[in-house]
Write a structure and sequence with these properties.
The chain folds into 2 domains: about 30 residues; about 80 residues, Beta Barrel (Lipocalin). It contains 1 helix and 8 strands. About 10% of the residues are buried. The chain is of the alpha+beta class. About 25% of the residues lie in helices and about 45% in strands. The chain is globular. It has an 8-stranded antiparallel barrel. A hairpin with a 4-residue loop joins strand 2 and strand 3.
Length: about 120
C-alpha cells in the first residue's frame, strides 16, 4: 500500500501532462493567423499577434488596432478601439489556404485577400 501512495502524485502529473498535450493539439489543429499579411490588391496590411492583438493599415494608410478572437471553425471577431469611445466589434469569416488569407465581412459586403509576408 505504501508504494501505491508514492506513485499517485506521478499518476496525477502524467494525467495533467496528457491533458495539456491534447488541449494544445486541439488548439493547434486550425490554421494559425499569427504573423504579417499584405493585401493582394492595394497597400492594406494586417498583423496578428499571439496574444490576440492585431494591427492593420487600410489602403488609405489609416492604422487600426485592437483585439481579435477566432469564433467557431471560420469566424473571427475584431474589437477595435477608437480612443476613449466604446469598442467597435466587427464580425468576419476567414479562410486560410497555405500562405493566402481571405477575410469576408458580411456586414460590409467586402472580401479582402492577403498573402503572408516575412
Amino acid at each position: 500500500m505504501t508504494s501505491t501512495h508514492s506513485h499517485r502524485p506521478c499518476g496525477r502529473i502524467l494525467i495533467a501532462l496528457i491533458t495539456l498535450v491534447l488541449a494544445a493539439h486541439g488548439c493547434a489543429s486550425g490554421p494559425s493567423l499569427v504573423g504579417r499579411w499584405k493585401a493582394m490588391e492595394g497597400s492594406a496590411s494586417v498583423e496578428f499577434a499571439v496574444d490576440g492583438g492585431f494591427h492593420a493599415v487600410d489602403n488609405e494608410g489609416m492604422p487600426v488596432s485592437g483585439k481579435y478572437r477566432l469564433v467557431g471553425a471560420d469566424g473571427i471577431q475584431f474589437e477595435i478601439r477608437h480612443g476613449e469611445a466604446d469598442a467597435e466589434v466587427v464580425d468576419a469569416r476567414y479562410t486560410r489556404l497555405g500562405e493566402r488569407l481571405t477575410l469576408a465581412f458580411p456586414g460590409e459586403g467586402a472580401i479582402e485577400t492577403y498573402h503572408r509576408i516575412p
